[in-house]
Amino acid sequence: MNYFASIEQEPEDPIYGLQVLFKKDPRPEKINLSIGTLPNSDGKAFKFASIAKAEANVHSQNLPKDYLPIDGYEPFRLAVQELIVGPKKENSRAAYTAQAVGGTGALYIAGQFLARHITKTIFISDPTWVNHRKLFTACGLEVFSYPYVVAKNGALDIQHLLNTLYAIPIGSAVCLQASCHNPTGIDPTLQEWKEISRILKTRNHIALFDIAYLGLGTGLEDDLAPIRLFFEEGHEMLIASSFSKNMGLYGERVGALTIACHEKETLPIASQIRKIIRTIYSSPPSHGAYIAAECLRSHALRGEWHAELHTKRAELDQLRSAFYQEMEKYRPHDPFTALKASTGLFSICRLTKSQVLKLRDENAIYLAEDGRINIAALPHSRELLHRIVHAIAHV
Ligand code: LMR
Known about the structure:
Number of helices: 14
Strand order of the largest sheet: 2-8-7-6-5-3-4
Number of strands: 11
Strand content: 5-15%
Bound molecules: (2S)-2-hydroxybutanedioic acid
Largest sheet: 7 strands, mixed
Structural class: alpha/beta
Shape: globular
Radius of gyration: 21 Å
């Protein structure tokens, strides 16, 4: 018997696969605008000074290497919960938070939980992060999409989105990106979030928020505003968060799943979440959670981290406007205007797949297949930026 002979080769992952190609590319002028990270000019991940200090503190405490509990390091879990839904007030709603292996791990646990206990149907935005569909399908959910149409001027077609959320089967799960929409960079306004909240309530849909880029949009609190709004409005909901980008802890795989519920529901929910985690990886890694908790729980480090996030956002804004200004020179009536309105790391260059490939092959410029560009990875030098813009405008 030859079991393995019939195994089919899967295509490479559209984001991670490109990182392998980029690494192998010998051209010195190559530039990687494809993956959603905050790189330094040498392409390596930016290191936050506050997080480096938190890590040094953790090392000096010589914390144990024992297994963490199934749902993670408690000081981390509590600190994340406070960050996401705000400090616990008397009579306020309850929440439960489990540590997860990155934002992806949190989404996977959430997907499993939804499929087992709530609904078999989830709606994701079209377009969305390339991994959402595969991930939720792997959880046993049927995945459909709702339109997330961004016009050339950057306006989101909110009516189309709302109409669809109204029309889909009652009691569906809806995956919403709270800020820094991946890949468009265009988020609903707070007023529009209120409308989304109203429709989800009317139709008994359950929200699963993905907030992988928290703090890199318009500010920590602003980025959380839709979640806080839903929380105040009494939604039962799930929130997958991550410290990959906003603390630069990518490889540490530090994420969390928070579930907003009633106090008496926390214990049964926690038991079901632990059941899911135990069968996948038993318990999460400790090192990154120690670091994140150290930062979140120290007044000084947390303040420093907030200030660094502020600086990063200002840098992103600068890069975005430099890119936009260069673009305008070539295309005064351009299809790139949505860039100006975007927040966070991403914007979509309206390019075909073959144009994206051509940019890669002929100019060593790596964009995601759907034309998504990571603004944070653009060069600060005007000369280099000019080369990139020239290539994009003429591809
Ligand atoms: C991205 O969208 O580029 C990042 O979130 C990295 C990933 O896991 O795809």
